[in-house]
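Hi V.,

You were right to ask for the full record rather than a summary. Here it is.
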Amino acid sequence: MADDEIVSLRNRMAEAAELDVRARQQNPPKPASHKLRLLPEVTALLNRNSREIESAIVDAENNLLESVRFFLEPLSDGSLPAYNIQRELFAALARLPIDKEGLISSGIGKVVLFYTKSKKPEPNIKRQAERLLTEWSRPILSRSDDFRKRQLQTVDYDPSRLPLRSSQGALPLSATQTAAEARERMLAPPQKGNRARVDAKEKTYTIAPRSGAVIAGSFSRPLGAGGEDAFRKMKARQAAREGKVRR
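Predicted structure:
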């Protein structure tokens, strides 16, 4: 019964998406309202709290996710679907247990990738798309969602490998000279032109610098006799001050 309901809705969603494309292709273009009218029924099914319904939705044979992709795809004139459609469908996709087979058969990952790359979506929609893409790529890349098990490639910082801008015709510098100049730049006092700047763009790094910090507790020195003497003197001074206050 659930499969029949999902297949029927899938066909109506595909038809509504096609009607919206035709509406925008007319001269003059007409509003794309067919998907909006069907949206409440779509969200009601996607948000239904039933394991059986969820399994049927993500089933590759029913392929309802393909029609969800039709709803999220840009129209023929390059415009995105209504914000309500984007908000409701991305929220529903985050709750569904979509597996690799469902992603391949529906092609939903391609349109989600588009939302992460395009400048047109609203920031919250773009963030939802990025979270979905990260979540779906974990089983494909065999990555765990446990941050403690996450493994990052690390590399030691080598100043001699920094690119230097040399004038044309200048002799190439040796590795020692390159390292010396890089060290001088690092230790130079801050000036107007070489102050650190915060990059406003969001970036993702795949290689992390290897930390040289010493973990406190592993090699930390014990308190020792000198530390104990200083602690006793501090307590004695505190007791003396309290005695004077009482007098």
